[in-house]
Write a sequence for this structure.
């Protein structure tokens, strides 16, 4: 069956939508985010073969009537700005649009393996995962996460892999909760990081603050899955790995501002921020002051 599936790249070619922005060159793990150019006003009718990835489409343009064929029935909806369309991997789809409508979509493709990894970490039987088709749905939480991913794409991945992986995990968990037929999500409350494991992870973060850390890298320190690590780390500390890393970078920068004469731009790079403005943004959020004011 895998041989009959089209890739996200082939999907874009079949839709005849050129991406204005794409995360292909950013190396994001398991997720592809692309902002496409506004389509022409001509009508279209197409039947898409099954896709190898889960496909999430969010409208960023004007309201437009769109018809989807599902279970041999036609479903028509006025797709509003912010509405989501979700087509699970392995499902073909049929679409028809009338002439005179413009849609500027945001495409998000998720690899099925990523969904399975998150499900396993949440102790969900992967054999019971059955993501369902969704057409023209207003989902504020999903839209919020998608817009954060789009903003990071527009910034060229300035916040780093850990930030994107955290957003991706939130998105996947949301899809499992609201776009699947899983009757009951089983979570384990009696598992946690040992004191030694937590300290090992924290020591590694402090030692490698200047690096573009990822969940996989941090999880490998204590030999557990990235998704499982993120969940247990937050359970142990009250904040996500990404939030913890940012706080530690801000704190180290604060110390360096008061104890060294290094330029603020150099301090930013040494503690893991991509630029002085990136440091200033987070520094002010946590301390209420700018690095210049502290110095």
């Amino acid at each position: 069956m895998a041989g009959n599936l089209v890739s996200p790249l082939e999907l874009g070619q079949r839709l005849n939508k050129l991406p204005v922005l794409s995360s292909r060159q950013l190396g994001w793990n398991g997720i592809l985010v692309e902002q496409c150019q506004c389509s022409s006003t001509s009508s279209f009718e197409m039947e898409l073969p099954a896709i190898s990835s889960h496909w999430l489409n969010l409208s960023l343009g004007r309201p437009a009537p769109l018809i989807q064929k599902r279970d041999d029935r036609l479903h028509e909806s006025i797709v509003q700005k912010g509405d989501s369309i979700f087509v699970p991997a392995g499902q073909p789809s049929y679409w028809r649009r009338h002439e005179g409508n413009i849609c500027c979509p945001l495409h998000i493709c998720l690899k099925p393996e990523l969904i399975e990894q998150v499900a396993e970490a949440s102790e969900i039987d992967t054999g019971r995962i059955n993501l369902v088709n969704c057409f023209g749905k207003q989902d504020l939480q999903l839209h919020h996460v998608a817009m954060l991913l789009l903003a990071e794409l527009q910034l060229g991945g300035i916040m780093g892999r850990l930030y994107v992986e955290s957003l991706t995990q939130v998105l996947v968990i949301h899809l499992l909760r609201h776009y699947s037929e899983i009757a009951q999500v089983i979570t384990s409350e009696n598992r946690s990081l040992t004191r030694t494991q937590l300290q090992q992870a924290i020591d590694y973060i402090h030692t490698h603050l200047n690096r573009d850390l990822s969940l996989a890298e941090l999880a490998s320190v204590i030999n557990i899955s990235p998704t499982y690590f993120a969940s247990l780390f937050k359970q142990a500390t009250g904040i996500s790995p990404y939030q913890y890393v940012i706080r530690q970078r801000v704190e180290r920068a604060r110390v360096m501002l008061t104890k060294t004469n290094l330029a603020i731009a150099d301090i930013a790079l040494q503690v893991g921020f991509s630029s002085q403005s990136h440091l200033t943004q987070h520094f002010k959020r946590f301390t209420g002051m700018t690095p210049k004011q502290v110095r």
Summary: Residues 191-295 form a domain with the Arc Repressor Mutant, subunit A fold (CATH 1.10.10.60). The chain has two domains: 2-178, 191-295. The CA atoms of residues 49 and 92 lie 4 Å apart.
